[in-house]
Amino acid sequence: MEKGCIFCDIVNGRTSTEILYQNDMLVVFRDIHPHAPVHLLIVPRKHVRSANDITEADRAILSEMFMVAKDMAHAQAVARSGYKLLFNVERGGGQVIFHLHLHLMGGWKR
User: Looking at residue 93, what DSSP letter applies?
Assistant: First the structure.
């Protein structure tokens, strides 16, 4: 846990955030500033600052993030129509909260 990290507070239950899914490795919740009709955040319980800080020990977390993203896309009914998975890395790459997280976005009408 990182002091002052909002995602650490969320994954540890210190906020009123509605958790859509959780397991021993990660939690999933809605982005409070969505950029799509469906915009979820898939966040590891372990504090990893950014993709630049991933280590060999984090392989299972990354695999779990992608597997859960696939399952959540089905649960949110965007799997068939399509969705986007996105990591923002460092400030220049759009990262605002420095706790690794994967965006799942979809639900656009095309």
Answer: G
User: Catalytic annotation on 101?
Assistant: yes
Model-wide pTM > 0.90: yes
- 98 to 48, 80, 95, 110: CA distances (angstroms): 8, 31, 7, 33
**Over 70: is that where the pLDDT of 1 sits?**
no
CA angle 45, 61, 41 (to 5 degrees): 60
Inter-residue contact 21 to 10 (CB < 8 Å): no
Q: Which helix (H) or strand (E) holds 43?
A: strand 38-44
**What does the pLDDT read at residue 56?**
97
Catalytic residue among 35, 47, 74, 101: 101
- Residues 31 and 88 sit within 8 Å (Cβ to Cβ): no
Q: Locate 58 and state its tokens.
A: 């984090």
With left for phi above 0 and alpha for psi between -120 and 50, is residue 77 left, alpha or beta? left
Span 87-99, pLDDT tens digits: 999 999 999 999 9
Question: In what helix (H) or strand (E) does residue 6 lie, and over which residues does it extend?
Answer: helix 6-11
